């Protein structure tokens, strides 16, 4: 009877230990996830960081050069041959100026032979009637007709395909004759147009701010990474395998107060933020399910290297700390 009760109590105790192990394991997994998120996921090596930073700077300089090139105001003058001014005909004035807005086409009024134009003393001479009222096509346009501004812009776009019509502005406008602004010999004067500043120039300030923000972000990650000091790793004393998810506590040697707590990554490594630690004496405690610290197996060895740690007092400062190799003995079931 007594033996049966002892067996029941032992069974209950065993089940209780199993439940405690499951709870402890869940807590370790949760702590490991949080620690890996903030520490191990950001553990970039210096070379990778500087390569990435250099690439960002080179790309930013390249985009900046393109911005400066696009920001330059480009004035292009197209010289065309000036035709001879036809003689005669009612005392004509100088070359008229074409307004930027394209006027609607208006048919000229018919003037009867022998009538007098208001405001002048001269009598208009009869002109021969022109046959046909059809609108000529592009191929049939007379060379002496006035070229509308939209057609001029289309001709400019043919030479500068990267610019849209809204990016071209006619600055010096003369009366333009002929079908092709660039090639016609029946055009009057010069065509001066300006390629407007692109949208990238308007947003150059925002681009600069974004670039500086990205640089600061990279430096923030770098300084955060450097604020953590690699202190060592934890391994199995029997086979030398690295131990992940081990809980490392840095405690004050005098009052046993916990200063920092970290979790080893999948390679068994751990870090501390030494900038938050005052110079003084400390010790490290290690906790891992199914393992024992300090290692009694390694204590029996001879010629133990100095980096092997068994829980003794260590001196830590911001700039000086010896890297540790912490062995743990596995429990034998």
TrEMBL record:
<protein>
    <submittedName>
        <fullName>Carboxypeptidase regulatory-like domain-containing protein</fullName>
    </submittedName>
</protein>
<keyword id="KW-0121">Carboxypeptidase</keyword>
<keyword id="KW-0812">Transmembrane</keyword>
<keyword id="KW-0472">Membrane</keyword>
<feature type="region of interest" description="Disordered">
    <location>
        <begin position="85"/>
        <end position="148"/>
    </location>
</feature>
<keyword id="KW-0378">Hydrolase</keyword>
<feature type="transmembrane region" description="Helical">
    <location>
        <begin position="205"/>
        <end position="225"/>
    </location>
</feature>
<dbReference type="InterPro" id="IPR041033">
    <property type="entry name" value="SpaA_PFL_dom_1"/>
</dbReference>
<feature type="compositionally biased region" description="Polar residues">
    <location>
        <begin position="114"/>
        <end position="136"/>
    </location>
</feature>
<dbReference type="GO" id="GO:0004180">
    <property type="term" value="F:carboxypeptidase activity"/>
</dbReference>
<feature type="domain" description="SpaA-like prealbumin fold">
    <location>
        <begin position="236"/>
        <end position="288"/>
    </location>
</feature>
<feature type="compositionally biased region" description="Pro residues">
    <location>
        <begin position="101"/>
        <end position="111"/>
    </location>
</feature>
<keyword id="KW-0645">Protease</keyword>
<keyword id="KW-1133">Transmembrane helix</keyword>
<dbReference type="Pfam" id="PF17802">
    <property type="entry name" value="SpaA"/>
</dbReference>
């Amino acid at each position: 009877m007594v033996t049966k009760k002892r067996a029941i109590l032992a069974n209950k105790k065993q089940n209780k230990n199993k439940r405690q192990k499951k709870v402890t394991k869940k807590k370790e997994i949760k702590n490991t996830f949080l620690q890996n998120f903030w520490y191990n996921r950001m553990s970039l090596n210096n070379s990778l960081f500087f390569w990435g930073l250099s690439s960002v700077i080179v790309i930013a300089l390249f985009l900046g050069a393109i911005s400066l090139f696009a920001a330059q105001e480009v004035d292009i003058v197209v010289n065309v041959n000036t035709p001879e001014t036809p003689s005669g005909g009612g005392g004509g004035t100088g070359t008229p100026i074409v307004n930027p807005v394209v006027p609607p086409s208006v048919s000229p009024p018919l003037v009867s032979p022998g009538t007098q134009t208001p405001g002048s003393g001269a009598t208009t001479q009869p002109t021969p009637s022109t046959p046909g009222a059809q609108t000529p096509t592009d191929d049939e346009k007379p060379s002496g007709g006035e070229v509308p501004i939209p057609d001029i812009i289309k001709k400019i776009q043919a030479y500068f395909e990267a610019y849209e019509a809204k990016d071209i502005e006619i600055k010096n406008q003369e009366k333009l004759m002929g079908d092709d602004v660039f090639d016609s010999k029946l055009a009057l004067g010069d065509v001066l147009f300006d390629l407007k500043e692109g949208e990238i120039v308007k947003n150059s300030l925002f681009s600069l701010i974004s670039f500086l923000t990205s640089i600061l972000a990279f430096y923030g990650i770098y300084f955060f990474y450097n604020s953590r000091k690699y202190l060592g790793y934890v391994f199995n004393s029997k086979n030398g395998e690295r131990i992940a998810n081990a809980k490392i506590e840095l405690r004050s040697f005098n009052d046993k107060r916990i200063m920092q707590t970290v979790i080893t990554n999948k390679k068994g490594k751990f870090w501390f933020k030494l900038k938050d630690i005052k110079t003084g004496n400390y010790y490290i405690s290690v906790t891992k399910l199914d393992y024992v610290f300090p290692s009694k197996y390694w204590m029996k060895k001879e010629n133990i290297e100095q980096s092997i740690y068994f829980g003794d007092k260590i001196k830590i400062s911001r700039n000086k700390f010896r890297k540790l190799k912490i062995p743990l003995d596995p429990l034998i079931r």
